[in-house]
């Protein structure tokens, strides 16, 4: 396999990330033009997302953190409830990022003297390298097997790995999928699990629509930079000639469906060429919008329905006092 190395950390890359150029050609052929939010996370995008998580408007990260701080012991117990004492556990986390919240659960697992291996999976090799380096400092006794890969590769890892598993899918990452993709993905996640295994999924809940919208339209403009970074990435990696000042970040929340969507809006009529696609030209009308991200918000009954549709049951729901966010333990 490919090896990425950075200081003393080297990570196996399970497969090359699917081609960015193909994705752009395909996405710009759609109506409306549409790109996958998974491409936000190059090194600069991962850093911007870390800044977003610390913004005053962006409540999900600190709310989930507060749930783990207040109820971490109970969450960790619920994750191990199906396994017999002493049985080694693999804690597989999809989209681990900087692992800030997860470290609370990992410390709790270590304190409960569980024998376990942490398998963080992330699309961003740079974010994962930082996570592994920080774990070596902070939790040196913890066996860690990082995987720089997309979620689908994580499913293969899950299927191939024997023994008890706890799968973490935190931060409302699930909201970045369309509803049918949410169900299909949960179903695929459940398939390699046994009745003893547990899945912990973080869901951002419906709330004051203005608070939700503000979380994606912060006053400092970090989220705008994060969205625009996608175009910057195309310029650097694909030799595209996007003029960043000709684009505007536009977030839009629909309280009737819980769909928080982000767009990049063209401020004028313009043509963009992409060298990696043989200089192919793409026309954008004035105020035409490219869809770049979904961040769905959920109700508790929607979560129960989603679990059921994916062939899983809700074992326990952990929430903050205000009911802003839910961490839900699921089992087959
Ligand atoms: C990673 N994901 C759950 C974040 C979200 O809230 O959808 C990404 C994000 N996009 C803009 N702000 C944060």
Automatic annotation (TrEMBL):
Keywords in alphabetical order: Methyltransferase, Transferase
Domain Histidine-specific methyltransferase SAM-dependent: start-end pairs: 21-330
Endpoints of the signal sequence: none
Molecular function per GO: L-histidine N(alpha)-methyltransferase activity
InterPro entries for the chain: EgtD, EgtD_Methyltrsf_superfamily, MeTrfase_dom, MeTrfase_EgtD-like, SAM-dependent_MTases_sf
Transmembrane segments: none
Stated name of the protein: L-histidine N(Alpha)-methyltransferase
Keyword Nucleus among record annotations: no
Single biological process term from Gene Ontology: methylation
Enzyme class: transferase
Record-listed E.C. numbers: 2.1.1.44
């Amino acid at each position: 396999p490919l090896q990425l190395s950075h200081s003393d950390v080297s990570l196996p890359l399970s497969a090359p990330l699917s081609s960015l150029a193909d994705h752009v050609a395909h996405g710009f052929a759609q109506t409306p033009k549409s790109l996958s939010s998974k491409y936000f996370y190059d090194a600069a995008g991962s850093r911007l997302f870390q800044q977003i998580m610390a913004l005053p408007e962006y409540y999900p990260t600190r709310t989930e953190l507060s749930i783990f701080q207040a109820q971490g012991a109970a969450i960790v117990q619920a994750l191990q409830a199906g396994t017999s004492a002493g049985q080694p556990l693999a804690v597989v986390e999809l989209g681990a990022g900087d692992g800030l919240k997860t470290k609370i659960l990992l410390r709790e697992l270590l304190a409960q003297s569980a024998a376990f291996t942490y398998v963080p999976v992330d699309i961003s090799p740079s974010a994962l390298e930082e996570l592994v380096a920080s774990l070596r400092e902070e939790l040196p006794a913890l066996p860690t097997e990082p995987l720089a890969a997309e979620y689908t590769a994580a499913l293969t890892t899950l299927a191939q790995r024997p023994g008890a598993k706890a799968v973490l899918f935190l931060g409302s990452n699930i909201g970045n999928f369309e509803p049918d993709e949410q169900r299909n993905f949960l179903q695929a996640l459940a398939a390699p699990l046994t009745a003893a295994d547990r899945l912990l999924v973080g869901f951002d809940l419906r709330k004051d629509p203005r608070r939700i919208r503000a979380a994606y339209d912060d006053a400092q403009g970090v989220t705008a930079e994060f969205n625009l970074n996608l175009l910057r990435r195309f310029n650097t990696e694909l030799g595209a000639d996007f003029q960043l000042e000709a684009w505007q970040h536009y977030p839009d929340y629909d309280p009737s469906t819980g769909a928080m969507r982000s767009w990049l809006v063209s401020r004028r009529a313009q043509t963009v060429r992409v060298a990696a696609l043989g200089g192919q030209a793409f026309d954008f009308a004035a105020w035409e919008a490219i869809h770049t991200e979904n961040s769905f918000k959920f109700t508790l009954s929607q979560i129960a329905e989603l679990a059921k549709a994916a062939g899983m049951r809700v074992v326990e729901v952990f929430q903050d006092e205000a009911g802003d966010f839910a961490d839900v333990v699921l089992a087959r």
